Amino acid sequence: MVTCAAIVDTQQHRWTVTTPADQDILVTQLTRGSGDHAQGWVTDSAGAHVCWFGVDSDSCQLGPAGTYTVTVKLPYPTGRGDYTLAVESTRAPSTCRELPESFFSFASPGVTGTLAAGTAAHCFRFDQPVHSVLRTYDPSGEFDVRGQVLDADFQPLCEVRYVDRCTLDRRGPYRILLREQYGTASAYTLRMPRLSHPVGCPAVPLAPFGDPGAAVGSGTVSQQEEVGCHVVTTPAAGPLLVRLNQYHDQYLAWTMYDAAGDQVCSEYDPGRGCPVPAAGSYTLLMLNRNDFGTAIDYQVAVTRLDHTDGCAPTTGTSWDQAALRLHQTSQVQTNCQPFTGTAGQRMVTYVAPDRYNDAWAWLVDSAGTAICTGSSDEEEDGCVLPATGTYRVIAYLSWWQTDSVDLTYRLQVRRLSDPAGCPTITPGGYDAAPAGALGGIRCRILDLPAAGTYRVKAMTDDNYRRYGNVYDSTGHKLCTGISCAVPAAGRYTLVLDGSMTRTVIDNDAQHAFALLPWQVTGCPTVSDTGWRDAPQQGTFEVPAQYRCLRLPSPAGARVVGLLPGDATEATTPEMSVVDATGDEVCDYYSLRQYACALTGPAPHSVLLSARDGYPSTSYTFGVARVDGPPACPVLAGDAAGSTVTTGPDRFAVCLSVPADQHAARQSFTWSRTAGAGDARLSVFDAQGVRYCGPSGYSVGRTITCSLPAGPVTVLLESDALDASYRITHAPAG
Questions:
Q1: What predicted TM-score, i.e. pTM, was given to this entire model?
Q2: Which of 80, 117, 368, 416 is deepest in the core (most CB within 10 A)?
Q3: How far apart are CA 631 and CA 655, in angstroms?
């Protein structure tokens, strides 16, 4: 290395370098210095130009062995700078350190050194069998240290810069020239463990299912891109399951390699398990992907999926048996649950932890091969068994906290086609008790007398909706939700949360089931002049009960639902209006906030059900038709207005204003003159369109409406309390 404190203007500095090797490659390092940056070129003994090189690390291909001249100058005729210049021969380096066999062990700490500022390169020499696979690392995470592995003919094989594979597919001995791109002083650690036929990796024995006991490997991966390694030896080909203790703050990625250093599988491959192709030893690497450089302590267990050591006793698949409770006493434990099945049967597995965790489960056949890893029909639930025999559910919990000793989770293995153990229900009637009384077991057989659409709804014992899927006898999903169309009479299966395979509903959970023809029949008729006639009063005695009321209004009419203003959540039922076919035409919001247009064929019916959380409650409900010529008494137009009374059986008052007694903008005022409670007001035109309101409930208020031509209807709804209200109207000022 030479150091020049100054190079000025047109000065040219010359040095000679001699190489004993033909076709040598000269590695150069011309530092940037301060001031203007220099540049250089090489000429041979005859003065012929050989190459240019610039600042930082570069190279120059020489010709025959001999002496060459290196010239340095500034790029312009005026200026000033300083620099250092160093060169190193590729074929005949000044020094070259021999790397021992122990260097290629995964247990080796590597070789450390420092590239002094301005150094061209450090040379290392080694030999390994041809076709060996080495694993390279970044020599220095702080600086831009890099290198090349050269073969016996000094041709590059691979880069030494990042975590990568280096295959020695040409003969050695081999050399590495390590350099820092910008000539910065840099400490480095050179590591290249051999991935093919590795040494320095502790063995991890194959573990049984259940608690693995001592068959667990462990280690610490100190920083990002570092690896932990283990040797796994298996007596035969077959799938292996690799389990790591993955915490939420850990980033470990594992990969399995064969003896030649070729990748066999990784955790990112599709399917479950690593299908090793033959008996022998394999290398398992655990890579630290943590961007924060945090050290990771890990445990690992490897289990043969084609063996049954440690599996639980065979379980049945009937829906009426209790869910299995599985235990996990090790953070890398895997459980195995056998069951028998017949070719063509559709099975479904549900798994859920008893406290917060992630539970995983899948099916394998007798060879340990995962089945149904990717359904050709993603709309279907469950897994069709390809052959008759014994299958197993492979299951485990992902998270293991420091206080964990014995984590438990529940498992249900159930037959979805021609299921056993499901209670049978037949369609019931509206305005009656639900067809399926409260009971355990998450499924029901729906014995349906004919093809058509049915109303299916499941509720918990505290009257919360539980969603379910309906399947045919082969286990194919027909419907989800309340409306279910079946193609023929027969037996169908309703499974609660049927598609939610991470939800276990055990037999102690009680449910009631509504099963009704979609077409609503058998309902008592309710008055559509609920402002005049007594309201309908009813009771929900049990969960999943439907009440219904037949509307006398013709198709095309508009109606609103009437409720006491002081009705509580418990006494305010869910409500909808359906036509003669059973299809919904209006929901609760339309009935209460707008007006329900009775589209579709008549007769129409109002369906009522209790709100979530109220398994038994009572209600008071009325209906008012608001379209057509107003049938209500006329609201007086003088200053005294009209006085009306309300009470427990009359919480709606209807008044009309003829076409010639209101302006385009009209103000309506109400005030309570006696009694207790609040009221709200709405105004409808002759077509039943709500033009004003509903206002908020209050003891008195004035609202102003823009009204169309023609008569209008005024509806005052009050609390179910004895009270008197005065109502007036006048053109808006």
A1: 0.83
A2: 416
A3: 8
